[in-house]
Write a structure and sequence with these properties.
89 residues; alpha+beta; Alpha-Beta Plaits; four-stranded antiparallel sheet; 4 helices; 38% strand
Amino acid sequence: MDYILCRNRVTDLEKWKKAFDADAATHREAGLKLMHLWQGSNEPDNVFFFFETTNLTKARAYLTSLELAVSWEGNSVIEGETFFIESKD
C-alpha cells in the first residue's frame, strides 16, 4: 500500500466538507480510500486527510489534476499541500 497525506486551508469548513463528501465516488475511482480526516485544533481552518491507495500513479494523476484544482478554488480552499508516501515494505 501507498499513502497520501493532504492539507487544505479553507475559508468555510462546512462548504469544503460538503464538496469533499460529494467527491467520495471520484476518490474511489482514482483508487483512493479515505483513512482519516482531521481538523487542526489550534488552526481550525486547516483540514488534514489521509488516503490509502493501491495505485499511486492513478491517485497522483487525480490529485494533481487541473480539474481538482479548479474544484478546490470553488469550494473554499485557500491553499493545499499533498504528500505522496510510497511504502518500502
